[in-house]
Amino acid sequence: MSRPGGASRVVSARAAGLAALCAAALLVLVPSVPPSGAATRHHRAQPPSPYAPGVYVGTGNPAGVTFFGLQVGARMQYAMDFLNGSTWATITNPSWQLSQWNGSGYSMIWAVPMLPDQGASLAAGARGAYDHYFASLSHALVAGGQGSSVIRIGWEFNGIWFPWGAIGHQTQFIAYWRHIVTAMRTVPGANFKFVWNPDRGDFGGGDLATYYPGNAYVDYVALDVYDEEWQHYPGARAEVQQVEAGPYGLDWLASFAAAHHKMMAFPEWGLGWGTCKHGAPVDASGGVCGGDNPQFIEGTTQWFEAHNVAVVAYWDYGTSALTATKNRLTRAALRVYWAQPR
Questions:
Q1: What is the pLDDT of residue 286?
Q2: Terminal C-alpha separation, the chain
Q3: Rounded mean pLDDT for each run of 10 residues along the chain, 342 residues in total
Q4: Statement: the pTM of the whole predicted model exceeds 0.90
Q5: Residue 323: which CATH number?
Q6: Cα–Cα dist 293/291, whole Å
Q7: Domain membership of residue 23 as a residue range
Q8: Among the listed residues 51, 53, 39, the one whose alpha carbon sits nearest the alpha carbon of residue 296
Q9: How many Å apart are CA 63 and CA 185, to the nearest integer?
């Protein structure tokens, strides 16, 4: 099943000029008082949630990460960014992004394309044809002070919107994944955490467990989780139940993680993609979502707190971004759940 929303998210994230969006937000004064209708749970006196908070604010934008933390009252431990997947050269030489994040104080989650946009295949990768590219990338990351980063190889592989879409090619995907991890680990100073990261839901690829490369090649298991459905939006609370208990949702990931003795990660977590209110369609494909939805934040955050989660990164970009005039209820909910005791 196609997923235009997912494709739009990451294609836009690769553009080098995206950092301007969050930089411009630094000029906006954001009210700290929750607006009417926002989450109203009293600020908790206990320590912050055990998982590490993170955020995506656009590529190469540490100032935007800092500003997001001010909005939600919490210092972000992680920043998430995407390597440019246009060519092998852009994948293996992320020098501009490394220069932006160097010295920022944030631990990094890097989304690493398995394949460039054109001219490569899972089959060739499974034969080891691209090992040298990933060794080169590993050298660049280590030299750039990113040798302990979290690495999302070929995220959302269970869809059809990226060149590495693996539906029906489990054997090739697994073999290629193992080649990538092995190549990156051979570099002195490499101490990466590798994240196996399908998208939430059933996109017709069969049992996701059959795409798992094995415990020796994976550190965290993950899902990308957004407040979005197709054709029918069931309502905010019912949507949280769907996200948790539906096909390849949070409960499935918790069981899978426990069976493999792995912690969970949520590198992309945010509102629905597109301009939607009260379940109105986002676009002609039938995408629907809940708009500015504090109930989604509340329900999923409570689930994260109750499970073995290592890191959660909010998608503060596009229609999921927090601004002075947009997603104010969501921002207030995040302050309730993420703000650290004063």
A1: 77
A2: 46
A3: 36 33 32 39 46 97 97 96 98 97 97 98 98 98 97 97 97 98 98 98 95 98 94 90 96 98 98 68 73 95 96 95 93 92 42
A4: no
A5: 3.20.20.80
A6: 6
A7: 4-338
A8: 39
A9: 31
Measuring CA to CA, which residue among 233, 230, 116, 218 is closest to residue 177? 218
pLDDT value of position 122: 98
CB distance 107 to 150 below 8 Å: yes
Q: State how beta strands 193-196 and 220-226 pair.
A: parallel
Phi, psi values for residue 134, rounded to 5°: -75, -30
Long-range contacts of 24-32 (CB under 8 A, 24+ apart): 25/64, 25/67, 25/321, 25/323, 26/63, 26/64, 26/67, 28/323, 28/324, 29/324, 30/70, 30/71, 30/322, 30/323, 30/324, 30/331, 31/324, 31/328, 32/73, 32/335
Tokens 């503060």 appear where?
A: 316
Q: Is the dihedral of CA 227, 229, 235, 237 positive or negative?
A: negative
- Specify the pLDDT at position 121: 98
Number of domains in the chain: 1
Residue 15 pLDDT: 33
